[in-house]
Amino acid sequence: MNSITVKPELDELYTLNEFISDELGMENLQVNLIVEEIFVNIVNYSKTEFIIVNAEYIEPTLTLEFIDNGIEFNPLLKEDIDLPNDIDEAQIGGLGIFLTKELADELDYHYTDGENHLEIVKIVKQ
Q: 64: which strand partners?
C-alpha cells in the first residue's frame, strides 16, 4: 500500500489526485469525485493538522484510506438527503457524503487513537 501525507489545504487536492491516478495507472471520474468530496469535507470541517491517504490498487479493486486527527466524525452515520424533484428545489451542499455512499462499493469508518479512519473500496473498470 502506498501512502501520501498532505496538508489540510484545498490546493493539495491536485497533488492527491495525481498520487491516486499514479496508483491506478489512469484517471477515473468516479474515483476523482469520491476523493474530492471526502478531501474537501475533511479540509473544511475537521480542523485536522494533516491528512494521510493510503492507496492500493489490485485490479479491479481500489482501496483508499483517509486518516486525519481532526474532529471525530463518522460520515456513515449521516442521514441520506432527500433529493429534490427539480433544480429549483436543490440546496447547495450536503451531496458529498451522499455521492460517496452511492459511488463506493464499500465504506468503513473507525475512530482510533484520536484519528478518523475512512476506508473506501471502489471497483474500477478499465
A: 55, 120
Q: For residue 17, what are the contacts with CB-CB under 8 A and spacing of at least 6?
A: 32, 35, 36
Q: Note down pLDDT in tens along the chain; length 126 residues.
A: 999 999 999 999 999 999 999 999 999 999 999 999 999 999 999 999 999 999 999 999 999 999 999 999 999 897 665 555 555 554 555 677 888 999 999 999 999 999 999 999 999 987
Asked if 95 contacts 113 with a C-beta cutoff of 8 angstroms, the reply is no
Phi, psi of 85, rounded to the nearest 5 degrees = -75, -30
CA 74, chain centre distance (Å): 12
